Amino acid sequence: MNVLNLTSKENSPPFELQVEALEDRGVECTTVSVPGTVTADSSRSVIDYLRFHPTVLKESLGSYDLVHANYGLTAPFALAQPRLPVVLSLWGTDLDGDLGWISEFCANFCDATIVMSEGMKRDLGADCHVIPHGIDLDLFEPMARSEAIDRLGWEPDAKHVLFPYKAERTVKNYPRAERIVEDVREDVSEPVYLRTARDVPHEEMPLYMNAADCLLLTSEREGSPNVVKEAMACNLPVVSVDVGDVRERLEGVTPSEVCRNDRELRLALSAILNRGERSNGRDHADEISTDRMADRIHDVYRDVAGRAD
Predict the structure, then answer these.
(1) Omega into 132 within 30° of 0, i.e. cis?
(2) How far, in Å, CA of 154 to CA of 213, rounded?
(3) DSSP SS3 for 91
(4) CB count, 10 Å around CB of 273?
(5) What is the pLDDT of residue 43?
(6) CA-to-CA distance for 159 and 143, rounded, in angstroms?
(7) How large is the angle between the packed helices 262-275 and 174-184, nearest 10 degrees?
């Protein structure tokens, strides 16, 4: 099978893992990415997307079985080519953000749509496949916390709360995380540090997951946040607001907590830090592996390509 991938996030680790896992199953993947760059303060322009259109049209004339539009804003360009069936993957912010209407509209015309969570499926209100991004269980695995702390140079006699994003990413709500941790310092006898993952290469994130005492997620919106699944794979407890599929992912994972407000976040984080135990998240990680994800996407491909024959 030969698949043309369209994406606006070619360097995204979840997308790279998806392509790698599908290629391991014999799927030939070619990727065309939207030109231009994205920073914390700016996104791609209309001009960038206009430049994307002729590139997609030209590439779609090749010997592909289907087009896979990864992220909602690439869907119009996948549908604009005249000859190939289209699979659309929605990642979260492309459905519940300001331009979510584009994703909803385009999903009506795609041959199959993939979403990250049951909540996204309800929001879309259409027939679709729930296939969350998978994680590399060989990369994200438990290791001795003392070794991870030593390699990062963190203080060993303190508690470390991991905010797994850049602080300036507005949608991730770092000020709320700061506020919660500041309050928690009154409840915990050891010093409590809030650690961010600014410019941390993906392959080094397991060190942070294993050195931290808890992952704190305060995002305003999420689809199926990989950081929660990566924390699970490292047995790192998670305290999170109720976004995306976090509640579903953390079912049976302890200690971990999904919270409705700041008071619950503070109480849950304080309890986990004082308890000082790792979670049983690794026991629940099989469903979130890249192998499981790739098998299910491959099934979608075969179904769509078979209907097109």
Answers:
(1) no
(2) 12
(3) coil
(4) 23
(5) 74
(6) 17
(7) 60
CA distance 104 to 207: 38
Q: What is the dihedral of CA 207, 208, 210, 212, to 10 degrees?
A: 160
Kindly state the DSSP code that residue 289 receives in the 8-state scheme.
B
Q: What pLDDT is recorded for position 41?
A: 59
Q: Which two tokens stand for residue 244?
A: 């995306």
Q: What is the DSSP letter of 85?
A: -
Using one digit for the tens of pLDDT, what is the confidence trace for 26-55? Answer: 999 999 999 987 665 567 788 888 899 999
CA distance 12 to 18: 10
Q: What is the dihedral of CA 217, 218, 222, 226, to 10 degrees?
A: -10
Q: What sign does the CA torsion over 130, 133, 137, 141 have?
A: negative
| Parts of the chain with a pLDDT under 70 | 38-42, 309
Written as six digits, the tokens of 269 are 């984080």
* Tokens coding 288: 């979130």
The confidence score (pLDDT) of residue 39 equals 60
Residues 6+ apart with CB under 8 A from 230: 135, 140, 205, 206, 209
Task: Give me the DSSP letters along 25-38.
Answer: TT-EEEEEE-SS--
Report the C-alpha dihedral over residues 256, 164, 9, 73, rounded to 10 degrees: 60
Greatest alpha-carbon span in the chain: 66
3-class SS shares of the chain: helix, strand, coil, % to 5? 45, 15, 40
Residues 208-261 have pLDDT tens digits of 999 999 999 999 988 889 999 999 999 999 999 999 899 999 999 999 999 999
Backbone CA torsion sign across 172, 175, 180, 185:
positive
Other Cβ atoms less than 10 A from the Cβ of 80: the count is 12
The answer to whether 304 and 6 are in contact (CB under 8 A) is no
Q: Is 142 in contact with 125 (CB distance < 8 Å)? A: no
Report pLDDT for 253.
96
